[in-house]
Amino acid sequence: MFILELIVSAITSLLFLFFLLTSLGMESTGNPLVGPGVFPSILSTIILICSVLWCIDSLVAYLKHQKSTGTQEAHDSPNGLFHFTKESRRLAIIIILTVLYILILMPLVGFVISTFLFLFVSVMLFYGKLSSALIVSVLLSLVMFVLFQFVLHLPMPR
User: Fold this and answer.
1) Per-residue model confidence as pLDDT tens digits over 62-93
2) Which residues cross the membrane (predicted)?
3) Alpha carbon distance 93, 3 (integer Å)
4) Selection from 122, 119, 117, 106 nearest residue 157 by Cα
5) Residue 24 has pLDDT above 60, yes or no
6) What angle do CA 158, 36, 113 make, to 5 degrees?
7) Exposed, middle or buried, 112 (CB in 10 Å: 0-12/13-18/19+)?
8) I need a surface site. Which of 21, 26, 70, 143 has the fewest CB within 10 A?
9) What is the structure's pLDDT at 120?
10) Surface-to-core class of residue 99, CB atoms within 10 Å of its CB (0-12 exposed, 13-18 middle, 19+ buried)
11) Residue 15 to residue 12: CA distance in whole angstroms
């Protein structure tokens, strides 16, 4: 578990370092304190600091565990290094679903339908009730549609 957490925290740190560098490279319009990259830079910096701290914490925990047992974790655990609990499998599935939702589904079928499908699958994954999944996904999709179109007078995200 320690090695997996260390790997994920390192990947997260590198990802948000990339986001920070990308947001700092955005062209500013006039005042550099109000440009398009300010908010992404602030968020990327905060998350980068947190992920570096997580990486350090994971490394310290791994080293303490290795020192106390004298062996690597993969040999101590009967299930090996990549044993996933039910919660970690659900987390991995929801991350994959989110990436598919944003990168593939939304450009193909639009915001409303892709949001409905994403919410339906997510609710089914966590609660397993067809009626709850339908009610939640329909209501939230409609609320977002009404909010964008009639309250905010903005086009739907594409």
Assistant:
1) 888 888 876 554 444 444 445 567 777 777 78
2) 41-63, 91-121, 133-152
3) 21
4) 106
5) yes
6) 15
7) middle
8) 70
9) 92
10) exposed
11) 5
In the block, tokens 């090996």 appear at: 80
Q: Which two tokens stand for residue 120?
A: 């339906």
Q: The tokens of 129 are what?
A: 């009730």
Whether residue 63 contacts residue 10, with contact meaning beta carbons closer than 8 Å, is answered with no
Give the span between the Cα atoms of 56 and 133, in whole angstroms.
39
Q: Read off φ and ψ for residue 78, nearest 5 degrees.
A: -70, -20
- CA within 13 Å, CB half, 139: 7
* Residue 16, H or E segment: helix 2-24
C-alpha dist (Å) from residue 71 to 104, 129, 141: 43, 44, 51
Between CA 46 and CA 66 the distance in angstroms is 30
Query: How far are the Cα atoms of 36, 64, 107, 148, 151 from residue 80, in angstroms, in the given order?
Result: 46, 19, 39, 48, 53
